[in-house]
Amino acid sequence: MKLIFERSVDGYYNEMISKCDVPVVELPETMKREKELHLPSLPQPEISRHYTELANATFGINDGFYPLGSCTMKYNPKINDEMAAFPAFANIHPLQPERTVQGSLEVFTMTERLLKEITGMHAITFQPAAGAHGEFTSLLMIKAYHEKNGQPQRNKIIVPDSAHGTNPASVAMTGMITVNIPSDEYGCVDIEALKEAVGEDTAGLMLTNPNTAGIFDKNILEITKIVHDAGGLNYYDGANLNAIMGVARPGDMGFDIIHLNLHKTFSTPHGGGGPGSGAVGCKEILKSFLPNFYPVQQGEQIVFTEPADSIGQVKGFYGQFSVFLRALTYILFLGSEGISSASKGAVLNANYMLHELKDIFEVPYGDTCMHEFVISLDRLKKETGVTALDVAKGILDHKMYPPTMYFPLTVPEALMVEPPETESKERIDDAISVYRKLYEAAHENPEDFHNYPLHAQIHRVDEVRAARHPIVRYDFSKE
Question: For the CA atoms of the chain, what is the radius of gyration?
């Protein structure tokens, strides 16, 4: 499709903007542009058609099966958007006096109370902007905790080899050191390797549970005890909380701090990279290290406070207010029974899909899973030359979105599938049939797979070239 600049025709204009209702102030000559600003000129119908074409070129959860339930594309109830757009919330300003926004501050305290109940934590901050930002904030708090206790030598964070890539990156940003430990044959923490890794320099452990293979670690209580006995703290990566919310609590597993992807687990649209909210919850021992602007009820008013040992501000103002407002709406709408039902539905859908595919695909980590499962196409690649990438591209031709590819890194030719709780059995059966058809086709016509997709908006592209040489701006010199 054409870019909006390529649609532009000199002389077209629109009169859609209302007359200015405030005094007009001219910029000083020294501040004015020296060159004409490049803006497209289109009539209103062409503007509408352009954005409609863009929408049609994008695949979303409204278009078909989208097996990334906890990561990005969980169904987002429209009532969430209605609440976020409510004028009393949408029209406030971050610099307003606290007494004028008491209702909005109650959103903070009410959401905190409910999330503390769900996670087993004692305090929540909403300041971090997204998941990796929540990791970073959590690690800063762990670092500050050890330094205050006179143990600055505790600067090593243990991270399993199956962890999300943001985990070691966040560790590096804090100036601490990552200690990588291997997984066992089930994709879980190798207990003996963990025992060898802990010591007087251990600051903590970063762990996702269920892990990236969709397995709930049966040794979780032993794991967190080993770290605590060594003097470290346990951090819970909340990426997979969708599998256990309302059923099990990280706080009861021995975790001291946790980040929550409110924009994923609690149903705010996140496709396209934002906005997000990486709320951080912690136990009492870490509460004094929370970022500033922590809301507290004082008398008849809710006010922002700065905890005694605060790590300071990690984001402008107070966090992504509309995101955790949506999360609050979602929690209140579902209630305690609905929250647990969402997790159980996600686990049921994933296990059903796994059961229907395990006879033809390699399943490296057993016959059951939590909300997601991993299949390996390594054998298929050796037999036919068809890779996980080829199969993913083939899935696009069936009006479905492909699963996560080549992750976790511990599984060769991995596809990680996570059908969310909102998908019906009929839709999952359709997806299962597509996977099975592609498996058969890979043995019958393997060469075809290297050209897939054939019917998508964009056909097979050179992904390496696209990543290394992206074209990110329009060249007006060619006009």
Answer: 25
Q: What is the CATH architecture of 79-333?
A: 3-Layer(aba) Sandwich (3.40)
Sequence-separated (6 or more) residues with CB below 8 Å from residue 273: none
Q: What is the DSSP string of 390-433?
A: HHHHHHHTTT----EES-STTSTTEEEEB--TT--HHHHHHHHH
Which residues, at least 6 apart from 185, have a Cβ–Cβ distance to it below 8 Å?
A: none
CA distance 269 to 73: 7
The predicted model scores a pTM of: 0.89
Report yes or no: 290 and 282 within 8 Å, Cβ to Cβ. yes
pLDDT tens by residue, 196-242? 999 999 999 999 999 988 999 999 999 999 999 999 999 999 989 98
**N- to C-terminal Cα separation, the chain:** 18
The structural domains of the chain, with segments of one domain joined by +, span 4-56, 79-333, 339-467
Amino acid at 22: V
Query: Shortest CA distance to 291 belongs to which of 306, 272, 269?
Result: 306
d(CA 7, CA 14): 15
Is CATH 3.90.1150.10 correct for 339-467?
Answer: yes
Residue that has been written with the tokens 């991993």 in this structure: 374
